[in-house]
């Protein structure tokens, strides 16, 4: 029997039939969905903590990895490769986080005769070394922030370089990323202690203490460009994402396009990003991060050699499924993007990360059972979730529960849709970032697009003073009351069958406090 699915646009036959998804939560489910739409089978992996997760049931098969700690499950390279070969997979998709940007993992996958759904290991390595990446980008004519070409050897050199660059400067870990091992220096005599601090933090986080220096840019925006590259040598830019709303280097809200990017600037950013990808022989989906200064100048920051959490905002305004394209490209097929190098966005998309964190308590990570979940729906709404009612949320992994996305013809319409959807969302059982997002959607500065990387620090105090909106509290209380009703019915049935008495529900108590029950 022939299978048309395997015939690529140019008649090429993809070697892919079954993919191991080496991840968990929403991104595992996202990748499994893409596999099924491409006519591929998906094999899930799971730790003991994720046995009942939606991604496990969505897959065609699932392999248990072991105990919940990531080192014993999602970070165990040998277990993952054994799972892939035992289930007859031809490829491994790493998702984001975990092993997605480990050169050693990409190599181990290839050495086992499997396809790594991602760039060549050499591209991961080049971009993982931040000073090498800067040198390569500079050689390719891409603007980089003024700074040192290599790590500084000692405090004396750090002092000389700081004087050359001019204060303020930022010390950064050479093998870093994500803000670890970073120190801001505003006065020259802070340099020695900042260097020691950055060095030891980098040593702890990455096992490599090398530190380099960049001129510090004040109040930039964080703008990133999505690219796709296939084996035919084609590289396209899928415009920018505005990612300035973050807290401690964790993004909370992303959008596409950015209000700060004109079509002319988009073209220049796209040219820089595709040149960056070309300079390292990139393949698949990747993201080039830039800082956009208030003056309009932009600078290369780093490249993320993986699919990113916020990829769906790009999908919504470009009409592209990035994960399906990753799979096609990994199978050696050409990407399915019409048009030239740089495409035009349609409308506006916003993503809110719904995390198990308590905004009223310094975004303290929370654990607990998802007792009730009402997922928003309706026009222009997308929910990329990884949990459902009944699942336990633990502190073993990242607190992301789901991504809520809204698309609209304009930014204003997308914001109004997001507010509407955030009001439909009901999560009972643990605190989440939902009320924070509702607050931001109503914030005049956000609505005017006045955002940069200092946004959250600037609005933080106002945010903490605001109580959660009444209708949100009400919705949770109503859901809790419904749960309590159900339990009471079950308890009655149980007592009829001589079962032990069911504990009184904390949610019934909450509903009573809200005056919803007597
Ligand atoms: C910078 C910067 C200002 N000037 N580099 C933070 C994480 C790492 N990826 C790079 N980061 C920054 N690098 C120079 N020369 C400011 C940041 C930065 C930041 C960047 C993007 C998004 C949020 C941020 C929050 C604080 C600092």
Could you please describe the fold and organization of this structure?
This protein has 518 residues and is of the alpha+beta class. The protein has five domains: 4-117, Rossmann fold; 146-215, 2-Layer Sandwich (Dna Ligase, domain 1); 217-345, D-amino Acid Aminotransferase, Chain A, domain 1, CATH 3.30.470.20; 347-450, D-amino Acid Aminotransferase, Chain A, domain 1 (2-Layer Sandwich), CATH 3.30.470.20; 473-513, no CATH class. It contains 17 helices and 22 strands. It has helices at residues 25-37, 54-58, 77-86, 103-111, 121-128, 130-139, 155-165, 191-206, 263-279, 311-318, 322-330, 411-424, 434-441, 444-447, 455-465, 470-496, 506-513; strands at 18-21, 41-47, 61-66, 91-93, 115-116, 169-173, 183-185, 211-215, 221-229, 235-247, 250-256, 284-292, 298-304, 348-355, 357-358, 364-365, 368-369, 372-374, 381-385, 392-393, 400-408, 426-428. The strands form six sheets. An eight-stranded antiparallel β-sheet has the order 13-12-9-10-11-14-21-19, sandwiched between helices. The chain has a five-stranded parallel β-sheet with strand order 3-2-1-4-5. Strands 7-6-8 form a three-stranded antiparallel β-sheet, with helices on one face. Helix 4 packs antiparallel against helix 5 (121-128). The termini are far apart. Mean pLDDT is 91; it is low at 1-11 and 499-504. The chain binds ligand MV4.
């Amino acid at each position: 029997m022939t299978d048309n699915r395997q015939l690529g646009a140019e008649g090429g036959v993809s070697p892919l039939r079954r993919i191991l998804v080496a991840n968990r939560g929403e991104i595992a489910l996202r990748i499994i969905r893409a596999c099924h739409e491409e006519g591929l089978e998906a094999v899930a992996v799971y730790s003991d903590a994720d046995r009942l997760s939606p991604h496990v049931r969505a897959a065609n098969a699932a392999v248990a990895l072991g105990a919940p700690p990531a080192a014993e499950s999602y970070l165990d390279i040998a277990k993952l490769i054994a799972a892939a070969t035992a289930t007859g997979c031809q490829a491994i998709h790493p998702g984001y986080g975990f092993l997605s940007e480990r050169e050693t993992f990409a190599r181990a996958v290839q050495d086992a005769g499997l396809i790594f759904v991602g760039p060549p290991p050499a591209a991961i390595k080049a971009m993982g070394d931040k000073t090498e990446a800067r040198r390569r980008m500079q050689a390719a004519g891409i603007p980089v922030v003024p700074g040192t070409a290599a790590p500084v050897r000692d405090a004396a050199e750090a002092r000389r370089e700081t004087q050359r660059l001019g204060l303020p400067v930022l010390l950064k870990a050479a093998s870093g990323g994500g803000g670890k091992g970073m120190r801001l220096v505003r006065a020259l005599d802070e340099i020695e202690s900042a260097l020691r601090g950055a060095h030891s933090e980098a040593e702890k986080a990455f096992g490599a203490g090398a530190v380099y220096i960049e001129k510090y840019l004040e109040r930039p925006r964080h703008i990133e460009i999505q690219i796709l590259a296939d084996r035919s040598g084609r590289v396209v830019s899928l415009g920018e994402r505005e990612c300035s709303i973050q807290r401690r280097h964790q993004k909370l809200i992303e959008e596409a396009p950015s209000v700060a990017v004109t079509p002319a600037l988009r073209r220049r950013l796209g040219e820089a990003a595709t040149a960056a990808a070309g300079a390292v022989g990139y393949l698949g989906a990747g993201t080039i991060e830039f800082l956009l200064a208030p003056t309009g100048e932009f600078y290369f920051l780093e490249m993320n050699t993986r699919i990113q959490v916020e990829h769906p905002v790009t999908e919504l305004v470009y009409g592209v499924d990035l994960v399906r394209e990753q799979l096609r490209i990994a199978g050696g097929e050409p990407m399915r993007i019409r048009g030239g190098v740089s495409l035009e966005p349609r409308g506006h998309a916003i993503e809110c990360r719904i995390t198990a964190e308590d905004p009223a308590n310094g975004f303290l990570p929370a654990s607990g059972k998802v007792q009730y979940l009402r997922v928003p729906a309706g026009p222009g709404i997308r929910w990329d979730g990884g949990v459902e009612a009944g699942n336990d949320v633990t502190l073993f992994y990242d607190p992301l529960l789901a991504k809520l996305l809204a698309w609209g013809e304009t930014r204003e319409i997308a914001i109004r849709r997001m507010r509407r959807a955030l009001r439909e969302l009901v999560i009972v059982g643990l605190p989440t970032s939902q009320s924070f997002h509702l607050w931001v959607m109503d914030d005049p500065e956000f609505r005017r697009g006045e955002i940069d990387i200092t946004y959250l620090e600037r609005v933080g105090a106002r945010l903490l003073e605001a109580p959660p909106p009444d209708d949100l509290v009400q919705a949770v209380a109503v859901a809790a009351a419904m749960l309590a009703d159900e339990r009471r019915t079950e308890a009655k049935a149980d007592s009829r069958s001589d079962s032990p008495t069911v504990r009184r529900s904390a949610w019934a108590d909450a509903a009573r406090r809200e005056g919803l029950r007597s």
